[in-house]
Write a structure and sequence with these properties.
There is one protein chain. The chain is of the alpha+beta class. Helix content is 44%, strand content 19%. The protein has a five-stranded mixed beta sheet. Helix 1 (20-51) packs parallel to helix 4. It is globular and about 40 Å long.
């Protein structure tokens, strides 16, 4: 399979493997237990800034249209996702009606790490910052809104209370 132009990596399968969600949930639980909430948040931020550096570079090059194209391609490959991406002037809004990770974890009776949904802020902000962007997340626990905008936009800091805890 060739990579979509909006994804800076390739994959050999047409859709992601949902069982990966088990692995990330377990990894988050281990890191939380071992290093606490701050350690887990540093992990997420570093993951965004380092592992996803090619995504950040693409966002820097293509701006908000590149952000929208990335999320459309990303969620098209996520099994069970119900997500709508829209460009709205000075921002890109990702409306997650059904989070594929939360859906899969619940369907298989997994105990979800309560702060699971905070990853969407910390990882995505780690990707966005080097591209001159930021993100704000509202909702969680299976559906949320992620808004990507210019870093210099006059928006308040992310309030983690705006991200609901995940439950089974």
């Amino acid at each position: 399979m060739t990579k979509p132009a909006s994804l800076p990596y390739s994959d050999s399968k047409p859709a992601g493997a949902a069982d990966f969600y088990f692995a990330i949930n377990a990894t988050f639980r281990f890191l939380l237990d071992r290093f606490g909430a701050e350690g887990l948040r540093r992990y997420w931020t570093d993951l965004g800034a380092q592992y996803y550096a090619p995504v950040s570079a693409a966002w820097k090059q293509h701006g908000l249209p590149g952000v929208a194209a990335y999320w459309r391609a990303f969620f098209a490959a996520e099994p069970g996702a119900d997500v709508h991406v829209r460009e709205d002037g000075d921002r890109v809004v990702v409306e997650v009606a059904v989070c594929p990770a939360i859906r899969h974890l619940r369907a298989h009776g997994r105990q979800i790490v309560p702060c699971f949904c905070q990853q969407c802020f910390f990882i995505n902000d780690g990707i966005a910052a080097p591209a001159g962007l930021t993100v704000r997340v509202e909702g969680g626990n299976g559906s949320c809104r992620q808004t990507f905008l210019l870093l210099e936009a006059d928006v308040p800091l992310q309030n983690l209370d705006d991200i609901r805890e995940a439950t089974c």
